[in-house]
């Protein structure tokens, strides 16, 4: 989109903001902190970029005005605009007006984006957080040609409902890097749980956590299909399956030292009972091995994705 188009979209966004009325005004008052010092630019308002934005706003610690989202085709982001977000095509402007810059484009789109913002990135002002799969921080630093504080993060789409598992890593141990990591950790803890891992494990983390959302959604869908076969309507079966899955996850996550899943399983498997009969049948059919194998293949694929796409 050209500059004139950008302006029209920004104006539309502003009108939209006015129309959002009281709810936003109240939030804005509660959270009123110097805008410039807390503004976040999310470069790439696709699946994960928009999920991050939604999660941050729903945390109550950021308002719509604290976040600038960009994409090249701003017309395609009308949902975000309707919700109240500022969406624009100008990455440079977004970086100029922000402190934290989140890179949320696909791997092949990253070099062009970095070239675009390079001049605006200021090592003493910005922290860059890359969500981009398979691209190492050293590579980003090389394209930027600057020693800017960089963090690599791998969230998942549950960030929109503040239930992300976000893995974080840095590639340097200096004060600036550690400070950036600490800020990124605080940010992502607003929208779920975090784990700091070595950068070499970021690709496996993609398979387990980012792709993992799809794996568990498929498992819930399978459970709900089983539910339909044994007599429930599809909406009932889906609710019952999803809430049961949430309960199982909460049993593991509700204490500081999570119990082993098998100890929870032992509590529902009575001798010669129906749970163990169902469970063993699932295992005969390859339940655990299918999940393990799928995660391994997904991780292997994630490791080669960027290189393959570049060819
Ligand atoms: N989806 C997930 O669950 C997930 C989780 C963790 C990490 N990731 C990683 O996050 C990245 C994005 O994934 P995604 O699923 O969100 O992909 P996506 O839906 O395709 O989003 C990419 C977005 O980037 C925008 N974009 C591309 N080039 C741009 C540029 N130069 N300036 C501004 N915006 C630009 C695209 O919009 P336009 O075409 O309109 O520009 C699009 O909205 C990937 O590297 C992925 O590996 C994804």
Short description:
The protein has 14 helices and eight strands. The chain is an alpha/beta fold. The longest helix has 24 residues, at about 285-310.
Kindly report how far apart the N and C termini lie.
28 Å
Bound molecules: NADP nicotinamide-adenine-dinucleotide phosphate
Oligomer: single chain
Helix/strand-derived category reads: alpha/beta
Q: Which topology of the largest domain does CATH recognise?
A: Rossmann fold
Helix count from the secondary structure assignment = 14
Order of helices and strands: HHEHEHEHEHEHEEHEHHHHHH
Number of discrete domains: 2
Name of the CATH superfamily of the largest domain: NAD(P)-binding Rossmann-like Domain
The main pleated sheet reads as: 8 strands, mixed
Structural notes for this entry:
This protein has 311 residues and is an alpha/beta fold. The chain has 2 domains: 3-200, NAD(P)-binding Rossmann-like Domain (Rossmann fold, 3-Layer(aba) Sandwich); 212-310, ProC C-terminal domain-like fold, CATH 1.10.3730.10. It is 55% helix and 11% strand. The protein contains 14 helices and 8 strands. It has helices at 3-19, 22-30, 47-58, 78-83, 91-96, 110-117, 137-144, 175-189, 202-210, 212-229, 234-253, 261-268, 274-284, 287-310, and strands at 40-43, 67-70, 86-88, 100-103, 127-130, 150-154, 164-169, 192-196. An 8-stranded mixed β-sheet has the order 3-2-1-4-5-6-7-8. Helix 9 crosses helix 14 (287-310) and helix 10 crosses helix 11 (234-253). The longest helix has 24 residues, at 287-310. Mean pLDDT is 89; it is low at 1-19 and 25-33. The structure holds NADP nicotinamide-adenine-dinucleotide phosphate (NAP). The site of NADP nicotinamide-adenine-dinucleotide phosphate has 29 residues, from helix 3 and helix 6.
